[in-house]
Amino acid sequence: MSSRHLSRSTIISLSIFSFLACITFLKFSPNGENVLSWTTDTFDIDFTLDTLKPKPKLFSWEIDEDIKDHHTYNEREITKLRTCMNDNNCHRNQEKVVLAFAHTWPQAIIDGWRGGEGVWAMSMFRAMRELGYTVLIGMNGWEETLAHYRMFPDQVKVIIKSAWIDDCIKNPACIKSDINLTGIPRWKCEFSMNFFPDEHTRFGLDYKWIIHADRHFKGQEETEKLQYIGYSFEDECKNREFIPHKKRPMSSWILAKQATLFHLSTVETAFNKSYFELAGQETGLEEMTFKGAYQVNGEYMKGWIHDSPVESLRGVINLGKIGPERFSEELSNSRIMIGVGNPTLSPSPYLALCSGTPFLNPIKSWDSENPNDRSKWVSQHNYLKWLDPPYVYNVQAHDYEGFVNAIQSSISHPPTKKYIDPPMTLNEVRKRVERLVETDWKSIAKDYMQEKIAEGATYTWTL
Ligand SMILES: *[C@@H]1O[C@H](CO)[C@@H](O)[C@H](O)[C@H]1NC(C)=O
Ligand SMILES: *[C@@H]1O[C@H](CO)[C@@H](O)[C@H](O)[C@H]1NC(C)=O
Question: Signal sequence: where (predicted)?
């Protein structure tokens, strides 16, 4: 099933992958950096000696402090690029251009927005800049994208858009086609950002054009249908002090920014509101304080609320609106972070783990005949369900005993160090970003297109 949508060359590379293991990861792009690859030409390259070469240096990625809008940022990058091309002294990768034209990018980079997609965009931006690429950013619409594409049509390697893009791609007069030879080629312009690894392609393009921020499966980053890029908290994690659990107060953190999350259906709200008060009467939990930081706003997700009025949780101290520093301090001083069912695939549990704080991950549904089959679990954090204590406690929704046991175990068997998911280091994100930019997408698109045409598909756009 999963190979149906991959080109033949991709399938071959993927199967070679499994036994050549990590050596085959190494491919050298013209600039000498190691690139992961899905295309077969990886295996033509003699990498044995090259792998001993020192890694090329990373460029600094931060933007000038006085920049207040993305136009100013772009103007400066364009000037730098034109000047270096003129003077023939561009640094490594500078002449390769990435257009990141989706609202998230200016919001994250210029306005400092750090929601899930913002965290992800920042990680990709950092990796691209560290590798030396010229990254231009903008909004999701076509005009601005097209104007920037026209400046450097051959140098633009990939164009990243949000999952919601307008109809230009459906229009042969807009995209590159037989009737519009100078339109933007779809294989270049259609990398769409989907935070969640959900499967949906657009007509006539492979799943690899969907890039995503997190996973449902463990160890399938390279073999999955879609393209995992991910984000990294490595810096934040390294800067954090690990506080041994016996020095922490008897305190647990409830993950929720909105009280509405305690008032959804019994599927979406994993634990009865009474659990927090009741748990305080259990052995070893008499001193436990439950804390959280959430808003009480009955308008939030109004249509989903099952029991009104939306109110604070009894037995939980609400710190209200807190900043990232306080949040981080609270996590480092908690015994466990408790999920209530939503938000799904939130970045916050990774921050808890890298403070050495375990996460209680509610399992919202499971196969009743094989309740231990994790592949069938739908959990709040569907990637972390693959981890076990002392880092992650997977607890079935509405299982009060399991809920209490997890908290008790987090006290008796706490983590003794921080945890960073290996695919989420800065270096791993950088490698995947480099592959995104360096892969020969045109040839992958061509293979895919030919397969589809052989199956009877018609294409209104050209490569
Ligand atoms: C080709 O597409 C671009 C937009 O992508 C548009 O500006 C241009 O007018 C189109 N040309 C033709 C001949 O349709
Ligand atoms: C939660 O527990 C209380 C008290 O045990 C009970 O009355 C209530 O119906 C439960 N709520 C849900 C949604 O199960």
Answer: 1-22
Q: Is the pLDDT of residue 120 over 90?
A: yes
- Report field, pTM of the whole predicted structure over 0.90: no
Distance CA 79, CA 2 (A): 44
User: Ligand 2, atom 10: nearest CA belongs to which residue?
Assistant: 272
Tell the burial category of 416 from Cβ atoms under 10 Å away from its Cβ (0-12, 13-18, 19+): exposed
Spacing, Cα 448 to ligand 2 middle (Å):
53
Instruction: Supply the pLDDT for residue 11.
Output: 33
* Confidence label for 9 from pLDDT (cuts 50, 70 and 90): very low
Residue 296 Cβ < 6 Å to ligand 1? no
Rounded to the nearest whole angstrom, what is the distance from the C-alpha of residue 139 to the centroid of ligand 1?
19
C-alpha–C-alpha distance, residues 362 and 28, integer Å: 43
Does ligand 1 lie within 6 Å of residue 184's CB atom? yes
Return the CATH class of domain 235-419.
alpha beta
Is any ligand 2 atom within 6 A of the Cβ of residue 265? no
Instruction: Quote the mean pLDDT of the chain.
Output: 89
Whole-number Å distance, alpha carbon 451 to ligand 1 midpoint, is 28
Q: What is the residue extent of each domain of the chain?
A: 70-232+430-454, 235-419
Least confident of 156-165, 287-296, 406-415: 156-165
Tens of pLDDT, residue by residue over 319-376, are 999 999 999 999 999 999 999 999 999 999 999 999 999 999 999 999 999 999 999 9
Residues 6+ apart with CB under 8 A from 65: none
Q: Element (H or E) spanning 74, and its range?
A: helix 70-87
| pLDDT tens figures, 426-439 | 999 999 999 999 99
Give counts: helices (H), strands (E), the chain. 13, 13
Our answer on whether the CB atom of 274 is closer than 6 Å to any ligand 2 atom is: yes
Is 427 touching ligand 2 by the criterion CB < 6 Å? no
State the ligand closest to the CA atom of 142.
Answer: 1
Question: Quick one: pLDDT at residue 38?
Answer: 65
| Cβ of 272 below 6 Å from ligand 2 | yes
- Phi/psi of residue 319, nearest 5 degrees: -85, -5
Annotate 409-449 with DSSP letters as a single string: HHHHS--SS----GGGSHHHHHHHHHHHHHS-HHHHHHHHH
180 ligand 1 Cβ < 6 A: yes
Please answer whether residues 180 and 172 qualify as being in contact, where contact means their C-beta atoms are separated by less than 8 angstroms: yes
| Amino acid identity for residue 10 in this structure | T
Question: 73: Cβ–Cβ under 8 A, 6 or more apart, which residues?
Answer: 63, 64, 67, 109, 110, 137
